[in-house]
C-alpha cells in the first residue's frame, strides 16, 4: 500500500481525483485535496461549486464515483457517517443540533455516558470529562448548563467538544460563522487556534473572505465542481481569491452609486416595543441606502418587524411617504409602499413548498385579479417578469423554491417584493449565506433601486457590506439607537464602538 | 417537476379511480346497490359528510382542523327541535339555528386566533361542550313532527331518478367552495398559510382573519347540516350526527388533503367523501353493523394519513437516487449501510 509521498509532513487526510455525479449533474470532477497536521485549510467556492458534496464525501455521506480518500496515506472507504467518525473525521454544521433540555455534558456524551454499578450514569465522570474537554479548547463553560440558552457559538463549541470526545483529528466546519456576531466569531476562532496548535486539522468553509484570511493558512478553491487551486493564502488578496472562485474579475463587490437624497420616504418617530427596543427615531430619504448596524440581539430586526407591522408597536409612529401606518398591519404597510425582505429566507421570506411563480405571486394577490378571481395569466407574467429581471436561475417557473440554491432563493424573495414596486425597501441581512457572485448582484440591485428613487434601509451584520453600501449608518445597541454616522466617517472602529456601547 | 403538484394530482387520481372501481364493483356484485332508490339513499346519507367536508377542506388546507362540527350540527338540530316544540315558525327557526352555528364557529375561531391555541385541542373541547349544550337544550326528546314540505324536500328525490332534491343546493355550494379555494386570492392565501404561515404573514396575508372566516363558515355549514340531518331523518335529537366528524376528517384526508396543510384539492376531498359514502352504503346493504362501519372508517382514516406519506417517501427516495442534495446526515444515529 504505497502512495507517492511528498516532501515534508505527510497529509493526515487526502482526496485524490474524487468525482461524484448525481444523475446528469457532475457535482465533483477530479478534485484533490491534502490536509496537513496543524493546519486550518479553507475551502472556497460559490454556492453550487461542490463544497457541500466534498464535505459529505469526507463525512461518509456520499461515496465517490471515482478517486480515493487516503487517511494517513492508506486508502479508506466510508460506508456511512459512522465510518468517517470512527476514522476521526467530524463535521460541525452551521446550525448545531443539540438537545436543548440536556446539559452540555449530557449532550457531549449522549448515549455513551460513563457508567457506575447497575448501569447507572456516572454524572461526576461525565462532568469531569467535559471539564477536561473544555480546558483543552481553552473555554470556560459550565458542564451542567443546559444547551438551551447557549449562544450559537457556544453550541458549536459543544459540538466541537463532542467531536474531540470521539478522538476526531479532522474537523470540518461548514459555514460555522454564518449566524455568529463578531465577538462570537472571535470566541470560536480562539478554539480553532487552540485545536490547530494541538496538531488537529481543520477544514474551514465560509463565505466571509476576511475570516478565511484571518484563520486559514492555505486555501483550496472549487468552481463548478472542479478543483481550481490549492495554495497558501500568504500574499493573496481578497480580490485574488474572488477571482479564483468566480473565474472572472468581479466588477466590484460594493458598487455604490452616488445619489442626492430626495424627500423623506420613511419616517419612524419614537418607536418603542416594551422590553425589545426603546424610543427609536430615524428617517430614510428617497435615493438613500441607510445601513442599520449592531450586534445580533440589539433589536434591529425587531424594529424592522414593528415598522412593517408584523409585531405591534407599543408607542411611536411610522410614516411611509407621508401616510401613517396602522399598527400591526403588514397589508396596510404594503399598500403604503413598504416592503420587507426578512431575515429568515426559508421561514419568513418564502413558502418553500410553493413554486417560484406563486411565491412571487403572493405579494400580488390583490393585483393579479379579475372580477374577484385569480388572473393566472397576469400572475404568471408578473412572476416571470421579475424572475427574469433579477436573473433567477431556475429550470421552470413552476418549480418549487426549495429546488433553488440559497442565492437564487434570495433573488426570488427580492423579486417578490420588488414586484410590489415599493417606495421604501427594508432588507434584513440581504446577503447572508449567499455566494460572492450573487452578493455582488444584490448590491448592484440595491444601488440601482436607490438611484431610481427607492429609500432603502439595510440591516446587516456584515460590516464591510454596511460600510460599502450605506450612505449613512445607524447603529443600535441594546434596543436603542446609539449613533448615526455619515458615510465619510463610517469605519469598522466607529461602528463597532457604537454597536458595543462604547462611547462613539 | 413541482412535486407537490404531481403528488396531489396523483393522489386525486388514485382516489377518483378508487371511487370508480368501488362503484363498478358494487354495481356488479352487490344486490340492490344499482337501483335509483338506493343510489339516492347513498347520496342523501352522504350529504351531511359532504356539506361539512367543503369548509373542512379549506380549514385543513390552511393547517387547522375543526372536530366540533358534529356537535355543532347536533346542537343546531336540538335547538331546532326545542324551538319547534315551543311553536316557533320553521322559517324563523332555521335562521336561528344557522346563527348558532356561526356563533359556535366564531368561538372556535377566536380561541384559535386570539389566544393562539391549537385547533385540535380547542375543538375537542368544544366537541364536548356543544354536545352538552345540545342535551341541556332538548334533553332526551326526539322531535319528529316537522312540516311535511320540509321533510319531503330533505328526504325526497327528483321523480324516479337517483338525485335527491337536496343534492342540487349542495352542487351550488360545492361550486362556490371550488371557486373559493382554487380560483380566488382568498384560496391562494389559504394554501400559503398552510404551507408556510409565517411567510404568508410576512407577505401581508391576514392570517388570523382568514382563519376566523374559515372557522365561522365551518360553524355555519355544520349548523346547516344539523338542520338537514333532522329533516332528512325526520328526527331532531341531541345526539344527532354523533361521530360525524370522524367521517368528515377521514373523507377529507382520504381525498389527499395534507393534514399538515398547504396541499390538496376539493375534487379529491369530494371523491374521498363519496368513496366513504359508497363503502358505508355497501356495508349497510351487506348488513354490516354500525359499530363495524365505524371501525372501517377509523381504519380508513389512519390509512389515508399514512398513504400519501408513504407515497411521498417513495417519491423522495426515488428523487434522492436521481438528483443531488439528499437530506443532511443524521449524526445521532449509527451509519446506515448502503
From TrEMBL, chain A:
Keywords on record: ATP-binding, Cell membrane, Membrane, Nucleotide-binding, Repeat, Sugar transport, Translocase, Transport
Q: Does the keyword Metal-binding apply?
A: no
Top-level division of the source organism's lineage:
Bacteria
| SMART domains from the UniProt entry | AAA (SM00382)
- Which GO-annotated molecular functions does the record name? ATP binding
One Pfam annotation reads ABC_tran
Question: Where would I find the ABC transporter domain in this sequence?
Answer: 13-249, 254-503
Q: Fetch the Gene3D superfamilies from UniProt.
A: P-loop containing nucleotide triphosphate hydrolases (3.40.50.300)
Q: What is this protein called?
A: Ribose import ATP-binding protein RbsA 1
Q: Which organism is it from?
A: Streptomyces variabilis
Taxon lineage: Bacteria, Bacillati, Actinomycetota, Actinomycetes, Kitasatosporales
From TrEMBL, chain B:
Report TM segments.
12-30, 36-60, 67-87, 93-113, 120-142, 162-181, 212-235, 290-311
Q: Where do the segments described as Disordered lie?
A: 318-338
Q: Where is the composition biased (Basic and acidic residues)?
A: 329-338
Cell location: Cell membrane
Membrane topology per the entry is:
Multi-pass membrane protein
Pfam families membership: BPD_transp_2 (PF02653)
- Any idea which UniProt keywords this protein has? Cell inner membrane, Cell membrane, Membrane, Transmembrane, Transmembrane helix, Transport
User: Mainly resides where?
Assistant: membrane
* PANTHER family assigned: ABC TRANSPORTER PERMEASE PROTEIN YPHD-RELATED-RELATED (PTHR32196), AUTOINDUCER 2 IMPORT SYSTEM PERMEASE PROTEIN LSRD (PTHR32196:SF71)
Q: What is this protein called?
A: Autoinducer 2 import system permease protein LsrD
Source organism per UniProt: Streptomyces variabilis
Amino acid at each position: 500500500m504505497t502512495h507517492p509521498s511528498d516532501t515534508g509532513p505527510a497529509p493526515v487526510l487526502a482526496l485524490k481525483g474524487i468525482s461524484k455525479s448525481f444523475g446528469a449533474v457532475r457535482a465533483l470532477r477530479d478534485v484533490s485535496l491534502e490536509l496537513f497536521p496543524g493546519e486550518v485549510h479553507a475551502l472556497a467556492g460559490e454556492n453550487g461549486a461542490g463544497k457541500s458534496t466534498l464535505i459529505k464525501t469526507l463525512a461518509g455521506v456520499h461515496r465517490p464515483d471515482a478517486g480515493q480518500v487516503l487517511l494517513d496515506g492508506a486508502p479508506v472507504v466510508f460506508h456511512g457517517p459512522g465510518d468517517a467518525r470512527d476514522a476521526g473525521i467530524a463535521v460541525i454544521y452551521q446550525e448545531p443540533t443539540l438537545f436543548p433540555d440536556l446539559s452540555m455534558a449530557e449532550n457531549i456524551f449522549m448515549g455513551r455516558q460513563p457508567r457506575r454499578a447497575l448501569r447507572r450514569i456516572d454524572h461526576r465522570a461525565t462532568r469531569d470529562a467535559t471539564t477536561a474537554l473544555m480546558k483543552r479548547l481553552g473555554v470556560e463553560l459550565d458542564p451542567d448548563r443546559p444547551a438551551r440558552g447557549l449562544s450559537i457559538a457556544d453550541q458549536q463549541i459543544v459540538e466541537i467538544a463532542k467531536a474531540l470526545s470521539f478522538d476526531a483529528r479532522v474537523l470540518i466546519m461548514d459555514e460555522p460563522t454564518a449566524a455568529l456576531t463578531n465577538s462570537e466569531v472571535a470566541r470560536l476562532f480562539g478554539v480553532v487556534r487552540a485545536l490547530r496548535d494541538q496538531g488537529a486539522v481543520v477544514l474551514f468553509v465560509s463565505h466571509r473572505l476576511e475570516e478565511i484570511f484571518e484563520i486559514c493558512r492555505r486555501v483550496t478553491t472549487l468552481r463548478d465542481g472542479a478543483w481550481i487551486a490549492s495554495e497558501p493564502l500568504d500574499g493573496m488578496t481578497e480580490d485574488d481569491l474572488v477571482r479564483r472562485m468566480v473565474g472572472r474579475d468581479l466588477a466590484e463587490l460594493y458598487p455604490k452609486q452616488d445619489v442626492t437624497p430626495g424627500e423623506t420616504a420613511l419616517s419612524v418617530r419614537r418607536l418603542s416595543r416594551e422590553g425589545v427596543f426603546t424610543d427609536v427615531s430615524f428617517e430614510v430619504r428617497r435615493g438613500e441606502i441607510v445601513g442599520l448596524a449592531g450586534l445580533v440581539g440589539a433589536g434591529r430586526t425587531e424594529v424592522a418587524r414593528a415598522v412593517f407591522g408584523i409585531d405591534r408597536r407599543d408607542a411611536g409612529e411610522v410614516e411611509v411617504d407621508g401616510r401613517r401606518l396602522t399598527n400591526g398591519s403588514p397589508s396596510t404597510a404594503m399598500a403604503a409602499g413598504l416592503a420587507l425582505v426578512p431575515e429568515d429566507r426559508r421561514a419568513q421570506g418564502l413558502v418553500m413548498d410553493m413554486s417560484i411563480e406563486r411565491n412571487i405571486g403572493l405579494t400580488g394577490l390583490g393585483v393579479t385579479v379579475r372580477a374577484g378571481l385569480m388572473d393566472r395569466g397576469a400572475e404568471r407574467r408578473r412572476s416571470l417578469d421579475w424572475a427574469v429581471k433579477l436573473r433567477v436561475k431556475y429550470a421552470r417557473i413552476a418549480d418549487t423554491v426549495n429546488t433553488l440554491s440559497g442565492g437564487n432563493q434570495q433573488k426570488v424573495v427580492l423579486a417578490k417584493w420588488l414586484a410590489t414596486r415599493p417606495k421604501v425597501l427594508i432588507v434584513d441581512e440581504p446577503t447572508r449565506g449567499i455566494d460572492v457572485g450573487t452578493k455582488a448582484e444584490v448590491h448592484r440591485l440595491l444601488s440601482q433601486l436607490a438611484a431610481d428613487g427607492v429609500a432603502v434601509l439595510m440591516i446587516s451584520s456584515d460590516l464591510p457590506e454596511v460600510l460599502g453600501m450605506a450612505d449613512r449608518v445607524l447603529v443600535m445597541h441594546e434596543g436603542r439607537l446609539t449613533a448615526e454616522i455619515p458615510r465619510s466617517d463610517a469605519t469598522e472602529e466607529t461602528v463597532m464602538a457604537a454597536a458595543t456601547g462604547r462611547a462613539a | 417537476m413541482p412535486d407537490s403538484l404531481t403528488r396531489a394530482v396523483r393522489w386525486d387520481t388514485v382516489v377518483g379511480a378508487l371511487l370508480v372501481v368501488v362503484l363498478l364493483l358494487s354495481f356488479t356484485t352487490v344486490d340492490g346497490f344499482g337501483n335509483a332508490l338506493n343510489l339516492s339513499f347513498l347520496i342523501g346519507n352522504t350529504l351531511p359528510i359532504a356539506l361539512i367536508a367543503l369548509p373542512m377542506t379549506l380549514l385543513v388546507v390552511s393547517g387547522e382542523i375543526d372536530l366540533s362540527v358534529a356537535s355543532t350540527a347536533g346542537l343546531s338540530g336540538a335547538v331546532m327541535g326545542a324551538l319547534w316544540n315551543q311553536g316557533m315558525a320553521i322559517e324563523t327557526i332555521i335562521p336561528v339555528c344557522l346563527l348558532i352555528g356561526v356563533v359556535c364557529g366564531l368561538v372556535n375561531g377566536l380561541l384559535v386566533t386570539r389566544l393562539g391555541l391549537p385547533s385540535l385541542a380547542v375543538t375537542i373541547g368544544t366537541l364536548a361542550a356543544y354536545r352538552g349544550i345540545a342535551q341541556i337544550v332538548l334533553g332526551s326528546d326526539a322531535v319528529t313532527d316537522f312540516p311535511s314540505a320540509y321533510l319531503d324536500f330533505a328526504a325526497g328525490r327528483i321523480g324516479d331518478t337517483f338525485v335527491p332534491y337536496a343534492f342540487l343546493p349542495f352542487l351550488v355550494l360545492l361550486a362556490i367552495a371550488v371557486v373559493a379555494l382554487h380560483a380566488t386570492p382568498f384560496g391562494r392565501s389559504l394554501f400559503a398559510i398552510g404551507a408556510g404561515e409565517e411567510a404568508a404573514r410576512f407577505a401581508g396575508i391576514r392570517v388570523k382573519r382568514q382563519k376566523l372566516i374559515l372557522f365561522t363558515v365551518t360553524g355555519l355549514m355544520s349548523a346547516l347540516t344539523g338542520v338537514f340531518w333532522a329533516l332528512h331523518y325526520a328526527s331532531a335529537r341531541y345526539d344527532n350526527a354523533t361521530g360525524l366528524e370522524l367521517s368528515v376528517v377521514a373523507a377529507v384526508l382520504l381525498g389527499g388533503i395534507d393534514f399538515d396543510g398547504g396541499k390538496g384539492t376539493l375534487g379529491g376531498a369530494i371523491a374521498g367523501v363519496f368513496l366513504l359514502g359508497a363503502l358505508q352504503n355497501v356495508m349497510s346493504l351487506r348488513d354490516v353493523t354500525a359499530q363495524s362501519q365505524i371501525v372501517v372508517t377509523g381504519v380508513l382514516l389512519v390509512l389515508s394519513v399514512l398513504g400519501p406519506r408513504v407515497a411521498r417517501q417513495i417519491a423522495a427516495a426515488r428523487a434522492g437516487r436521481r438528483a443531488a442534495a439528499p437530506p443532511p446526515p443524521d449524526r445521532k444515529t449509527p451509519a446506515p449501510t448502503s
